[in-house]
Amino acid sequence: MSGTADATEAGTATVPASGWDEPEPALCTSALRKTYGGTVAVADVDLSVPRGAVLGMLGPNGSGKTTTIRMLLGLTEPTAGSVELLGHRVPEQTGRALPFVGALVEGPGFHPFLSGRRNLLRCAAMEPALFGADVRGAVQQALERVGLAGAAERRYRSYSLGMKQRLGLAAALLVPRELVVLDEPTNGLDPAGTREVRRIIAELHANGTTVVVSSHLLSEVEATCTHAAVLQGGTLIAQGELKTLLESGGPNLLVSVSDNESGLEALRQLGVPARVEGGELRVELSGTDSPEVIAALVRAGVGVYEARRDRAGLEEIFARLTEGET
């Protein structure tokens, strides 16, 4: 397959999603498909993730997120289509790419009777980049990074769900990675743990690492991701820069005025859709711009106290995409 995949083929996105121009993406798929008997889990997905991006993979339960991630990493063989991971074809060249990939998929799996530290030491022993290096130092650094240094000698079976997630994240971060894939990384974490994961993702992004995060927490995706891909029923229905996706909901202007009714009448005469919301005017800017709205209100003698741009939140866009809203 070529080094790029068309991110915005006709019919792929329900809302405008420009995709991205990236000559050498960190990963891409072409017509990726997975079926189980007569059930289609993933249907012809064309995904492209630019290097250095933080991609939030979104979708309801059963939308195909985890199956897609498993195919990206060579854990599940596609029924059809192709995957390219860090420039290598998967599954044929998986071994060339995986040393540069850290992943936490469907929850971590460790030996229950070993301590957290000993589990990580076993993981470190399989890392080519740590051969002959300070393995214990790398393990200690990873434990500290995820806040488990104080529980490193406890047996894994005594860990809470959140602690198990942290240890899985530590294993993914034992060595510097070009790509980190995290499937529901905040599952079981308390608010402090969630903030730590957000901090780690920000650090990875600052260092140029590409990150793919599968999550049902839309607020976390909106806070941490630069790009998004939305799946529904195994189909990729939108992808692109998060900013572009959010703006596809239509820009709005929130205006605080001296008289809402007079303001609405002035905007109606201009042909601009507006409504009163929370004591302010919410003005749709699809056919006009902010200066024209303000000028119309002033000409009508309506006092303008404050005006600020607003956009749809990720939750609203997500609902519109996955529930067929228009």
Automatic annotation (TrEMBL):
Chain spans, region Disordered: 1-22
Coiled-coil zones: none
This protein's UniProt keywords: ATP-binding, Nucleotide-binding, Transport
InterPro entries: AAA+_ATPase, ABC_transporter-like_ATP-bd, ABC_transporter-like_CS, P-loop_NTPase
Span of domain ABC transporter: 27-258
GO MF assignments: ATP binding; ATP hydrolysis activity
A Pfam family the protein falls into: ABC_tran
Record-linked PROSITE patterns: ABC_TRANSPORTER_1, ABC_TRANSPORTER_2
Compositional bias segments (type: Low complexity): 1-14
Membership in a protein family: Belongs to the ABC transporter superfamily.
Protein name as it appears in the record: ABC-2 type transport system ATP-binding protein
Organism annotation: Actinopolyspora xinjiangensis
